[in-house]
Design a protein that fits this description.
Xyl_isomerase-like_sf, 39% helix, alpha/beta, Xyl_isomerase-like_TIM-brl, isomerase activity, TIM Barrel, 377 residues
């Protein structure tokens, strides 16, 4: 979905396809017909954006990429951004910390990202010159040391050089966006600024995930100010909302939280304790007493963005305002990323339910951008 910012900039609104399991590009194409085309029809828009997740083994299949490009054209869909965070097996029965491997100190992560850049250059619409790829924030914090840090920065510099070659070869500009996430080597905006300051700023910036920002009790205004000071750009944003429980120590609060315990994904949990952020790597640890439960909990569980009760929707609205409400947009790529539909309480049990939920999220986000002055095209 395309919108026009008051300054004339083109804004792209999409949802991330990592909600749909697919092992190869033909599988991605099939899911686009099964779900995404129906979301577009439900929204009654001439074209709909989709942020693709493509597993590593599928990236280099050029023939399948051509078939996918034709499928996008046929279904009136467009791709301007890729989610390059999960490497593969994102829909395994248990994902947890496996999603952080390989990390940026490993060759496989660098080569995967280079392949994604070449793929995105092939898929970008003819009238769009710039695409974006979000990626993990170097790696999971445990076992990370100076050697891994140095090697990861070398890997990023190598990818920046490849992105420059991609633009020279194809005329398409692709930028990389590190996505701060709780528990990772880079989990806060301050850490992102420290790591990325001066590192290929024309090619590498951040993906501002609103759920992650809220879980760390950071604000959109604080994030934008810090990034501006460091000279780090917001390459894309993931429109997402976290689980929020104001009274986690009460019987009702614990019952609510217990309903979000599930074995597939990691749900980092945070609480303000003595004016600082304290946390656990997963929700069961917090419920077992690792957090005092005296104040609000925020949980890394992506919940539908159009839902207000027990979510950080207010924080999301504020973040969108910081990114799209000024005289000039801070980013032009907005990707709704609620990948947890299949593990939520009261999850849709059929295709139509999921299509309706995704459409509602996009409608809500579109309306927020319109309220900030954008015009739907």
């Amino acid at each position: 979905m395309r919108l026009r910012h008051p300054d004339g900039s083109l804004l792209h609104l999409a949802y991330c396809s990592n909600v749909h399991p697919a092992d190869d590009l033909d599988g991605v194409a099939a899911q686009l017909e099964r779900y995404t085309a129906r979301v577009r029809e439900r929204l009654d828009v001439p074209s709909l954006g989709v942020g693709l997740w493509v597993a590593a083994p599928a990236v280099a299949d050029e023939a399948a990429a051509d078939r996918l490009s034709e499928q996008l054209r046929k279904l009136s869909l467009e791709v301007v951004t890729l989610n390059g965070f999960p490497y593969k097996a994102f829909h395994a029965d248990v994902v947890k910390t496996d999603v952080y491997w390989p990390h940026w100190a490993q060759d496989a992560r660098r080569e995967y990202t280079k392949g994604l850049a070449r793929l995105l250059a092939r898929l970008l619409p003819e009238d769009v010159e710039e695409g974006s790829i979000s990626t993990l924030p170097l790696g999971w914090r445990e076992g990370w040391g100076p050697a891994e840090q140095a090697e990861s920065l070398r890997g990023l510099a190598d990818v920046a050089a490849e992105l420059e070659r991609v633009e020279r070869d194809t005329g398409k500009r692709v930028r990389l966006a590190l996505e701060p996430e709780p528990g990772c080597t880079i989990e806060t905006i301050a850490q992102a600024c420290e790591a990325l300051r001066g590192l290929a700023p024309d090619w590498i910036g951040v993906c501002l995930d609103a759920c992650h920002l809220a879980v760390q009790f950071e604000t959109g205004a604080g994030a934008v100010a810090a990034l501006d000071e460091a000279g780090v750009s917001v390459v894309k944003t993931q429109v997402s909302s976290a689980l929020r429980v104001d009274d986690p120590g009460s019987e009702a609060g614990r019952e609510l939280l217990a309903g979000f315990v599930e074995p597939k994904f990691l749900h980092q949990t945070r609480e303000i304790v003595d004016a600082g952020v304290q946390g656990t790597d997963d929700l069961p640890e917090a419920l077992d007493g690792a957090l005092p439960a005296k104040d609000q909990w925020r949980v890394h569980f992506h919940v539908p963005v159009h839902t207000h009760e027990h979510t950080t929707q207010d924080e999301l609205v504020d973040t969108l305002g910081q990114l799209a409400g000024g005289a000039v947009p801070r980013t032009r790529h907005f990707e709704v990323e609620t990948y947890t539909w299949s593990v939520m309480r009261d999850a849709p049990t059929d295709d139509e339910g999921l299509v309706a939920g995704l459409a509602s999220e996009l409608e809500w986000t579109r309306d927020r951008l319109v309220a900030l002055g954008a015009e739907v095209l």
